[in-house]
Specification:
Strand content: under 5%
CATH class: Mainly Alpha
Shape: globular
Structural class: mainly alpha
Radius of gyration: 18 Å
Number of domains: 1
Number of helices: 6
Order of helices and strands: HHHHHH
CATH architecture: Up-down Bundle
């Protein structure tokens, strides 16, 4: 990829910005709290979509913690952290996809009311984090990965709310399972995108040619 205005190597190093670190700490706290709330509600309410969203909150909490740990480090280390985050997203997505397929034959109808209430709260939390991190979406792969995670989370929360309405209207678990599957694919796609961007930033440091787009 040709180096343009969004490349970290050609722009001011915003990873040392105290606003970036403050935003990460806030995002970490919000995601850790929502993981605890959603995993409890997901298990109690029998919702695979809520459990998928809870695992996403857990993965993001770890991602924000990693981002805080590498803030201010050289580009290569930030790119390696992004690789780890991308791989985490892919693995969580595969896990959610597998459990959703298992629930097709063995799952029960979830509680739509629990799904709806928790989904709305999670949407508000993720939308707030995504809005806070929007200014950092054009940084290096590590910073972009944080933005991608937050954006995908907000989209996933909307899907959970729609799934709750679907479960309430149909009286079946299919809307919940479909949304869980879609969220899994979204997580896998986001993880692959992060890995590709990180590998492009690592290539010059490792002496490989970076193909232009």
């Amino acid at each position: 990829m040709a180096c343009g205005s969004c490349c970290a190597s050609s722009t001011k190093d915003t990873t040392r910005d105290p606003r970036w670190r403050r935003a990460l700490w806030i995002a970490l706290g919000v995601n850790a709290a929502m993981f605890a709330a959603e995993i409890i509600a997901g298990v109690a309410g029998g919702s695979k979509a809520l459990q998928a969203d809870a695992l996403d909150f857990l993965g993001d909490s770890a991602n924000y913690a990693i981002s805080l740990g590498v803030t201010g480090m050289v580009l290569a280390w930030r790119a390696r952290a992004a690789l780890l985050k991308g791989a985490t997203l892919v693995l969580l997505g595969l896990y959610v996809l597998g459990t959703s397929l298992w629930a097709v034959w063995h799952g029960d109808v979830p509680h739509a009311e629990v799904m709806g209430i928790v989904g709305v709260v999670a949407l508000f939390a993720n939308a707030s984090v995504a809005l806070m991190l929007y200014r950092f979406r054009s940084g290096d792969a590590n910073m972009r990965s944080v933005w991608i995670c937050s954006r995908n989370d907000a989209i996933g929360n909307i899907a959970v709310v729609l799934a709750a309405a679907g479960v309430f209207g149909t009286g079946t678990a299919w809307p919940d399972l479909v949304v869980a599957g879609v969220m899994a694919v979204l997580g896998i796609s986001g993880g692959v995108q992060i890995i590709v961007e990180a590998r492009r930033e690592l290539a010059p440091a490792q002496g490989y040619a970076v193909p232009a787009e």
